[in-house]
């Protein structure tokens, strides 16, 4: 397993996609905004060094240990999955047009209808607002559904989101975990 892609491999990953991580009976389907070039080069969601998704997932209690992005396929056995609002990789999420986010939101709605998780967790309030025409949406549970499933908006775990630390992200993730129905 190659862990770190070269700069040329990262540059060549523009517009690539990464397959969803999903399975039956998901408790939470996490939706990133779109893959980074680094993630597309590795084929692993939230793979860029500095992304706080995996540490926040662990610190919140969703996973029993800190997983490496290459271990993403262990998530469905834990009732967790990963997808994106927009499938194509870019260097930065702000490279996506509003129209692309809206089309991605429609595709995500269809995807959620098929997967049927207990919750859809969208990682990024700005992308959620644009993709689903909810300009006043805030973090946390939403009044609306996507794909007929309840939605929870979480902060974007990108290292570029300086408003959140790993611990504050983990706290937001924990609120979602605590709201889930018991699995026993």
TrEMBL record:
UniProt superkingdom: Bacteria
InterPro entries: MUG/TDG (IPR015637), Uracil-DNA_glycosylase-like (IPR005122), Uracil-DNA_glycosylase-like_sf (IPR036895)
GO BP term, pick one: base-excision repair, AP site formation
GO molecular function: pyrimidine-specific mismatch base pair DNA N-glycosylase activity; uracil DNA N-glycosylase activity
Matches recorded under SMART domains: UDG, UreE_C
Domain Uracil-DNA glycosylase-like per the UniProt entry, residue ranges: 19-177
Entry keywords, A to Z: DNA damage, DNA repair, Hydrolase
Gene3D superfamilies: Uracil-DNA glycosylase-like domain
Pfam families: UDG
SUPFAM superfamilies linked to this entry: Uracil-DNA glycosylase-like
Protein name per UniProt: TDG/mug DNA glycosylase family protein
Natural source organism: Paractinoplanes atraurantiacus
């Amino acid at each position: 397993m190659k862990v770190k892609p070269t700069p040329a491999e990262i540059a060549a990953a523009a517009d690539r996609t990464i397959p969803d991580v999903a399975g039956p009976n998901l408790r939470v389907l996490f939706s990133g905004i779109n893959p980074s070039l680094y993630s597309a080069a590795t084929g692993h969601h939230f793979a860029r060094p500095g992304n706080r998704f995996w540490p926040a997932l662990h610190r919140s209690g969703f996973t029993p240990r800190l997983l490496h992005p290459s271990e993403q396929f262990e998530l469905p056995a834990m009732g967790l999955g990963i997808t994106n609002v927009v499938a194509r990789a870019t260097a930065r999420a702000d490279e996506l047009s509003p129209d692309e986010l809206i089309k991605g939101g429609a595709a995500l709605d269809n995807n959620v209808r098929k997967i049927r998780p207990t919750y859809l967790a969208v990682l990024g309030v700005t992308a959620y607002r644009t993709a689903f025409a909810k300009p006043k949406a805030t973090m946390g549970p939403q009044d609306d559904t996507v794909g007929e499933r309840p939605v929870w908006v979480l902060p974007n775990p990108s290292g570029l989101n300086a408003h959140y630390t790993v611990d504050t992200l983990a706290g937001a993730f924990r609120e979602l975990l605590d709201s889930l129905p018991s699995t026993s």
